[in-house]
Amino acid sequence: MALSAALPDIDEKSVADEARALEARYGELDSRLIIELAIDHLFNEEIAVVSSFGAESAVLLHLISEVDHTTPVIFLDTGKHFSATLAHRDRLIEELGLTDVRNIQPLQSSLKREDPFGALSMTDKDRCCYIRKVEPMARAVAPYRAWMTGRKQFQASTRAALPVFEAVGSRIRINPLARWQSSDLTAYMAAHGLPAHPLVEKGYRSIGCMPCTRPVEDGEDQRAGRWAGTDKTECGIHLTGLTDTLTNISLTES
Ligand code: SF4
């Protein structure tokens, strides 16, 4: 089906207004209520979850599974993950009973053309993230009106003002855990017997692709180990580049 046909044209300004109204009305609600509201009332079939199956991803996925374990979960299978991440993904799918996890991979044509030796991350991380994360992410969320993430304000200074509801072009992104603290996550995982990613005990507190992730020291931001030694702080799937890519996909995939 044409992606542009899957999502009717929606005015970006009205979506921005909608996100602000949702934030004002529901942004302070309990996370579980926000998820219920989003899945059962606001977006129904038109919402997905994006998960990295990273350090604390079990918390959001557990909440989702309790509301509706059939909710689509998008995993960006970049081809550069730690094997421990893939094992953790499989364990959580099994333990939480998630029935619709989608492993979204980069386009083979892009890999062949731009990263034939799998070493692009060493020379051009932005481009590597684009072909392995941003384009696949845009492709994966294009059919939905909204998606949820596990991002939190405490993770980095760049996320300090993260709202629960935000507009991404003509779609809504929901961050139900935005106001959670690290201690809240730890307590929730303990209370529900949820497994941490196996690399957490080795000092990894935010876990992305293997070539671009290192453990963090005490006192560092949780995300300080991502693209360490460079100016890069985000892969782009949460930034404006995604909006542009989504727009291009909607315009061209018809
Ligand atoms: Fe490539 Fe590193 Fe980005 Fe992964 S995080 S897509 S390996 S640059």
TrEMBL record:
<keyword id="KW-0963">Cytoplasm</keyword>
<keyword id="KW-0560">Oxidoreductase</keyword>
<protein>
    <recommendedName>
        <fullName>Adenosine 5'-phosphosulfate reductase</fullName>
        <ecNumber>1.8.4.10</ecNumber>
    </recommendedName>
</protein>
<keyword id="KW-0479">Metal-binding</keyword>
<keyword id="KW-0408">Iron</keyword>
<feature type="binding site">
    <location>
        <position position="128"/>
    </location>
    <ligand>
        <name>[4Fe-4S] cluster</name>
    </ligand>
</feature>
<comment type="function">
    <text>Catalyzes the formation of sulfite from adenosine 5'-phosphosulfate (APS) using thioredoxin as an electron donor.</text>
</comment>
<feature type="domain" description="Phosphoadenosine phosphosulphate reductase">
    <location>
        <begin position="47"/>
        <end position="215"/>
    </location>
</feature>
<dbReference type="InterPro" id="IPR004511">
    <property type="entry name" value="PAPS/APS_Rdtase"/>
</dbReference>
<dbReference type="InterPro" id="IPR002500">
    <property type="entry name" value="PAPS_reduct_dom"/>
</dbReference>
<dbReference type="InterPro" id="IPR014729">
    <property type="entry name" value="Rossmann-like_a/b/a_fold"/>
</dbReference>
<feature type="binding site">
    <location>
        <position position="209"/>
    </location>
    <ligand>
        <name>[4Fe-4S] cluster</name>
    </ligand>
</feature>
<comment type="pathway">
    <text>Sulfur metabolism; hydrogen sulfide biosynthesis; sulfite from sulfate.</text>
</comment>
<feature type="active site" description="Nucleophile; cysteine thiosulfonate intermediate">
    <location>
        <position position="235"/>
    </location>
</feature>
<feature type="binding site">
    <location>
        <position position="212"/>
    </location>
    <ligand>
        <name>[4Fe-4S] cluster</name>
    </ligand>
</feature>
<dbReference type="Pfam" id="PF01507">
    <property type="entry name" value="PAPS_reduct"/>
</dbReference>
<keyword id="KW-0411">Iron-sulfur</keyword>
<feature type="binding site">
    <location>
        <position position="129"/>
    </location>
    <ligand>
        <name>[4Fe-4S] cluster</name>
    </ligand>
</feature>
<comment type="similarity">
    <text>Belongs to the PAPS reductase family. CysH subfamily.</text>
</comment>
